Amino acid sequence: MARKHNPYENFKEVLDKAAKLLDLTENDYITIKYPERSLHVSLPIKMDNGDVRVFEGFRVQHSSSRGPCKGGIRYHPDVDEDEVKALAAWMTMKCAVVNIPYGGAKGGIQVDPRTLSKGELERLTRRFIAMILPLIGPERDIPAPDVNTTPEIMGWIMDTYSMQKGYAVPGVVTGKPIEVGGSLGRKEATGRGVMISARLLMEKLGRTLEGATVSVQGMGNVGSVAALLLHRAGAKVVAVSDISGGFYNPDGLPIEELFEHVSQRKLLNQYPNQGFTLITNDQLLEMDVDLLVPAAMENQISRSNAPHVRAKYIVEAANGPITPTADEILDKNGVIVVPDILANAGGVVVSYFEWVQNLQSFRWEEDYVNDMLEHTMVRAFNEVWDLAHEKNSSLRMGAYMSALQRVVAAKKLRGIFP
């Protein structure tokens, strides 16, 4: 079934707007409109009952102009090539906006992992890595977790690649368990970056997170950590949701308890309701709050519901949760949006730290990792804020302009081969 909103076309539309603000010709950035490499693989897996099922998988490398490609792997029924292309392109911009020496990549398998046993999931993962093996490596393309993939799955990836090479290669993947080369602070990094972005936005506007009302759509790893850290920073998280629905309480929700609940991979509708109002995901997006954090999937805010968004500020924890048309509507309505390529970059920043530690065979302390993440996010946020105000544009355009300048400069310096 065709997507209502093609995420890769959305990416190119925003890219063109940023290039126009920078007075770039299409010749300056045309290479960024096309991924460098795209692989579509078939994955035959023997199921526990003896049947053979064939799954589809993708790995897209968007750009290696600034360094090895970098990007997660997601397991979801809606995965397709256009989604993976868009996610890879956003990774290119994300790495550039926080100025780490990576390009963008992404991978995915069209599967609902909840329908598989652990053994089936492991066989699927190992077969996928075997099929994309020629593309990946610590100097080429470094995968990481994304939607429905976990540190344990990253451990299987590291092991599969290492078995093919004949020696341990921890730097082939990030987001691994600590015991096999993962970085302290990596699991919380994306959500921590979202909290830092929200805090910096409020500071720029002369406010604080203390007492600010917040709603969070999506209570996976990123959304749940963001909700927890925003709560601990003094914000009042009044609404949360996941695929099973959500809760609303104007006096604030018990975020510490809800975090523990979802950390056990349980849905919100399995949590004992303590008198909270039940809400849908659509209702959550339209709540009258200071800060909205969409942390689910792409295209959650579109032309149809953007006019009804009442949040004053949005911090995009998910990739591409707002369509370009909706973005224009929100901008006209005075809603300030901290874009995904900046707000959720904490994960790739600490993935970079993990990769560096692997290459050095050295372990950083968690406080040092978090301090370095803070430093990187503050620097990037200030650069985006200043550029957006210099060009009288939105923060999204500021982020894309900041990233585009770096990618275009790298491509010009390297030239076109041959």
From TrEMBL:
The active site is at 106 (proton donor). Belongs to the Glu/Leu/Phe/Val dehydrogenases family. This is Glutamate dehydrogenase. The keyword Iron does not apply. NAD(+) binds at residues 190, 221. Keywords: NAD, Nucleotide-binding, Oxidoreductase. The keyword NAD applies. SMART domains: ELFV_dehydrog. GO terms for molecular function: glutamate dehydrogenase (NAD+) activity; nucleotide binding. Residues 183-415 form the Glutamate/phenylalanine/leucine/valine/L-tryptophan dehydrogenase C-terminal domain. GO terms for biological process: L-glutamate catabolic process. Pfam families: ELFV_dehydrog, ELFV_dehydrog_N. It comes from Candidatus Pullichristensenella excrementigallinarum. The record marks 146 as: Important for catalysis.
